[in-house]
From TrEMBL:
It holds the Pfam family Prenyltransf. It is an enzyme of class 2 (transferase). Keywords: Cell shape, Cell wall biogenesis/degradation, Magnesium, Metal-binding, Peptidoglycan synthesis, Transferase. The keyword Transferase applies. Belongs to the UPP synthase family. This is Ditrans,polycis-undecaprenyl-diphosphate synthase ((2E,6E)-farnesyl-diphosphate specific). It comes from Pseudoxanthomonas kaohsiungensis. The active site is at residues 21, 69.
Amino acid sequence: MTAPPATAGAPVPRHLAVIMDGNGRWAQRRRRPRAIGHRAGARAVNRVIDFCLERGIGALTLFAFSSENWGRPEEEVGALMKLFLNALEREVDELDRRGVRVRFIGERGPFAEPIRARMAAAEAQTLRNERLHLAIAASYGGRQDIAAAARALAVEVAAGRLRPEQVDEAAVGARMALADLPSPDLFIRTGGDHRVSNFLLWQLAYTELWFTETLWPDVDAGVLQQALDDYAGRERRFGLTSAQIGAETTP
Ligand code: IPE
Ligand code: IPE
Ligand code: MG
């Protein structure tokens, strides 16, 4: 009898959040324009989606473009927008066929109308899918997300629909992006930097963090499995003691 894989029976994250970093360096190492790295990065997006579908991970949030990335050179932003539009045109039918629900988090306003229209169409087309909830963070910032929730609460208080003392963690959380999903269990950042770069600030409060030197375009199932194996060996205590956690899981 062959030994079961090391991960047999190990908990799989319900929600994986990824900062896909390192496209530019991947291209620079090949003496190619940064846009080539972004194109290679788009192929790695398909690999991480395949991986989640295979492993039964129910939610995947990908940081595709931060609110700060608008400040990059015009040529690079233009190339990214073109890629984005191409991906929306090419991939959505296949995602839909595979049971993926697609949504976008972040500010829509700064995007050109054809992109906004495609985003809305992709969301509408895949709305009823349940196998994998895919959230693409585009023109997204964690602080912006918190500020938007605060603004929504202020509007409700000003209108008399909510009392100030009702503004608690649950009320804020309910108005943040991804409020309908469990918080990310596992966060992966590729590209070697150890920072959150204004990704899901609120939602990552108790997420397990995993970093790799691998540049995003080089990511494959092997790298993703390393992250899952590491995650499976961690003890999530949520502020409690180890003994308490043990007591909770013992029948
Ligand atoms: C991540 O790769 C993709 C985006 C931010 C859009 P980068 O473009 O940041 O790649 P590096 O970090 O410069 O290598
Ligand atoms: C974070 O990467 C944003 C995305 C991957 C979309 P950046 O490359 O923008 O982050 P910094 O600038 O290194 O913090
Ligand atoms: Mg980067």
